[in-house]
Amino acid sequence: MSIQLNLFKSFKINYLGLFFLSSSLVGQNIGSDGMKSYQMQVTKGNLESFSKTEKHEKDYAMYNAGKTNHPEFGALPFNAAYNGFVEVLSKREVDQRLFVNPKAPTEIKIQKSLTALHYKVNGEWVTVDHRLADKGNGIYEASNQFDPVGINTVVKKSYIKTPAGQIDFNNWKLFGSDESGVEELIALANWSDYTAGDDGMYIKNIFPGIDAQMTVNRGSVKTNFIIKSIQNPNYKNLVFKDDFTMPLGSVFKFQNGNSTGISKSAINLVNNSETVLEIGEANAYPEKGTKEDMSLMSYSIAGNKLSVIVPVNWIQSHIVKGNVIIDPLVSSSNSLAQASITGSMYNASCGFTNSCNYNLSVNTPANTTLTNASWSFNYIANGACWLQDGAVKYTTGACTSPSNTGFIGTVMQLAAEHAQVIIFLFGMMFVPVCLHLLALLFLFHLLCSFLEHVLVPQDVVVLVLVLTVRGQ
Hints:
By secondary structure, the protein is mainly beta. Helix content is about 5%, strand content about 40%. It is elongated and about 75 Å long. It starts with a strand and ends with a strand.
C-alpha cells in the first residue's frame, strides 16, 4: 500500500505527525489507537512533570525471546500507547514497529514512519525520544535521539550534543542600549524559580518583568522570552545577549552571507565549513495580537556572542495587547538531515493550488483483513502561520481526500499563547469503500491561528501508518 501526503501552504509550516491505519474485524471501530481523540486539539507542552513508564514484562516475554536485555523491554514506546498490545522488538526497523494483542494474537498493528522512529544503540533499535528526563543535580536531558539536547540549571545553560561537539547556549544577559548604541547591563539571568517537564522548562522572572520558556524537540531548543511589563523604558533597545560555548573553529554566519554586524537573517553556526546549528529568525509578537502585529527582530553577531535587539518603542506599542513574545529557535543541522519531509509548497497567493508530495509504502501482511484506519498528525508552525495557511491531503490509488477543490473541516479559532502550542489532528477511517480496496480516503485541515511558532527544526514530519490486521 502506498500513501501520498500532499502539504499545502501559503507560509512555511513545520510538521510533526503520526498517521495510523488500523483494522480488526470488518466494520469495527477500533477505539483510539493510543490517541486521545479524533479531533483537533491544542497542547502547550508539559513543562512541569516527567512521564513515568509502565512495564508489562510478563506479556512481553511471550513475544520477545532473547530480547529481555533490550532497554525498552516491557514498555510501549511513548508515541505508540496501544493499550493491551505488546511490541515484538525483533520486528523493529528504523521506521517501523509491530505490535500483537496477547488476548487475540491474530490482531496485529504495524506502525510505519516516513522518518526515523528509532536509532541504533549497541546494536538495538531504540526509540527516538525528544522528551527531557531528570538526570539529577539540576540537569535535564533528552538523551535518546541523534543529537541529544539538555538544560543545566546549575550553570544556567542549555546544550545540544552535535557531531562536532557539545554546544552550550541560553547563557543570557539583558542589556539596554541608548541612541548611540552604547550598552549597559540591566540584569544577569535569574534561574531560581523554574519548573521542568517532558517538553522543556519555564523560568519565572529570568529578568525583571520577563519570563523564559525553553521547549525541546529532536535536536532543538526553542527559547521564548515573555515580556510581561517594561521595567526599563528609558532605553532605546533591550538587548538579549547569549554567550555560546562552541567547538574550536566554529563561527556564526548570517544566512545572507555576513559573519559580523546586524541583520534580521537567520544564522548558521559553521564548523570546518559544515553547518552544525541553525538559528531561526527572531520573531516577535503580542500574544493576543493579529497577524499584522508580528515583526522580525535584528540579530547582532560579535565573536561567540549572539544578541537579539528589541526596540523598546515596539514593545510599548504592542504590550497593551498582552504579553510580548520573542522566540529564537536553535536546532542541530544533523537533526535536520534525518527528515525525509523538507517542507510544504509556498504560494504567494495564499492558495492551495499546488503542494509538496511525499510517499509512504506499507506492506500489508498476507492472509489478513484490513478493516479501518486511524491517523494522528500534528504540526508546530515556524514563522507567521495562521489558521487558513496550511492544509494536508492524502491519496492512494484513485482515492483522494478531499475529492473536491475545497478543504473540509473547521475548528475553533485559537488564541495565541506564550506557551509552546502544537496543533494535533486525529482521525479514523471507518471502512469506506476505498478501504476495502486497500485505499485510504480522508482529509484533515491544518489550522493554526496562534502566533506562537515552532519548535521543530525546519520541516520535520514523522508521518506514520499503523495497520491493525486480523489473520484469516
